[in-house]
Specification:
The protein is mostly helical. The protein is built from 6 helices and no strands. It starts with 14 loop residues before the first helix and ends in a 16-residue tail after the last helix.
């Protein structure tokens, strides 16, 4: 059997599709393509500030890394009336990133969701339960802000979410 007789079953992904996948991951993280934040994000991941500077192999490795981190997974939002809205998903993603979770599909964030809602994964959130998560994230951000503001004050007098009542 000659090699020409074998059908090619694997086709390389065209370069523009690889770059588009990187841009989609950035978009899902609410990082605007071409912005300073985007270039810093790419620099941190690859050592380069533009996808054009990466080889095809480097792009494939980057995409594999982004998939592993959950940046290229689609959220199963469903269409039932009790499913969270896109606005709720977006708000939760932004708050999660501000607190250092990366995105809302990391294991650390799933643990936070479980602590707040008793649900095993963020993908099981409803409109009501996602509201609890968003409120929890907002309170946590407020607490961190107060903690930073009170850093010069007496540390024993600083209010925490538990004794702020």
């Amino acid at each position: 059997m000659r090699t020409n007789d074998l059908k090619q079953t694997w086709k390389p992904t065209p370069r523009h599709k690889l770059m588009a996948m990187v841009h989609i991951a950035a978009q899902q993280l609410n990082i605007e393509h071409g912005s300073i934040e985007y270039r810093a994000w790419l620099q941190n991941l690859t050592g380069k500030t533009s996808c054009k500077d990466l080889t095809d192999e480097q792009l494939r490795e980057l995409i594999a890394s982004l998939r592993q981190r959950g940046c290229l997974e689609r959220k199963a939002t469903g269409s039932a009336s009790n499913r969270p809205t896109q606005i709720q998903w977006g708000e939760m993603e932004i708050l999660a990133r501000r607190l250092g979770f990366g995105n809302a599909m990391t294991p650390q964030f799933a643990a936070f969701v479980k602590r707040v809602t008793k649900l095993e994964s963020p993908r099981f959130l409803t409109r009501q339960s996602i509201s609890k998560v968003i409120i929890g994230l907002e309170k946590w951000l407020e607490y961190k802000k107060q903690k930073n503001d009170n850093s010069g004050m007496n540390k024993h007098a600083a209010k925490t979410p538990l004794n702020a009542r």
